[in-house]
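Dear colleagues,

For the upcoming journal club I promised to circulate an example of a predicted protein-ligand complex. I picked one with acetoacetyl-coenzyme A because it came up in last month's discussion. The inputs are reproduced below in full, followed by the predicted structure.
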Amino acid sequence: MTDPLVLCTAEAGVAVLTINRPAALNALNANVLLELEACVRGLAADSALRCVILTGAGSKSFVAGADIVEMSTLTPRTARHFAALGHRVLAELEALPVPVIAAVNGFALGGGCELSLACDLVYASENARFGQPEVNLGLIPGFGGTQRLARRVGAMRALELVATARTLKADEAKAVGLCLDVFPADTLMARVHEIAAGIAAKGPVAVRAAKAVLRRGLDGPVGVGNALETEAFANLFDSADAREGMTAFVEKRPAHFHNA
Ligand code: CAA
């Protein structure tokens, strides 16, 4: 039996997805994308889920891009299907109802950088490298890199990165906003697990509402986003968790949330 191309484990509400193709630096071919999609769909249906961590197998690479060997055989028609598949899977990952954390443990190039852009929070190891090098191949990003990158780092920086194919070291990636923080490689996963456990301990209904409102608000005018926030804020007063959180504060004790 062949190894899964994406590993999925879960403990205490924190799922870890690992792109598992280290011999090819975890490059994304169609099969990897389909396995990732199946894992993401499984997680989307899990009401006990609190947080997701996404990383790459091995110590060298998060994801070194879309699979160039596979792409070299594509025609315009099959390339459209491949890009559509990448977009669909990354959109499903982005739409997971809980925060998704990228633990970027090495190369995050091309489709790998785009995968990190579909995550809510990004942390990197000191050996991480970010970039959109597609123009080196005579291509452009095909999994949302022109769009999510511009929204995350601004249009000017995004075009600079795409047009020059410049690779950023981890501290430069942090400076431009591609990751939140940089940790020594041997502590990255432990630090990210700590962050995920911290999120998992908060009011689960509220964390899901926060992500939903923030994500949906980004797609429209600020007034519409603020209206969404008002609605979600008010609805939370119907949740047992909000009652418990506020009562616990008043009673000077820790809150015990039940995802309700
Ligand atoms: N696709 C397919 N295979 C890849 C790959 C990729 N994107 N990146 C690395 N590999 C493979 C290599 O071919 C090599 O395989 P073999 O051992 O069978 O030869 C193996 O992974 C190890 O890679 P290297 O020997 O090249 O490792 P290195 O340390 O010398 O270099 C690297 C590492 C700088 C990341 C280099 O591998 C590289 O430049 N990779 C390509 C990066 C890239 O251009 N990514 C963008 C792809 S296009 C894209 O992603 C389009 C999109 O938006 C959808």
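Two points we might discuss: The pocket of acetoacetyl-coenzyme A is lined by residues 24-25, 27, 64-69, 86, 107, 109-111, 114, 133-134, 137, 139, 141-143, 145 (CB under 6 Å). The two ends are 41 Å apart (CA to CA).

See you all on Thursday,
B. R.
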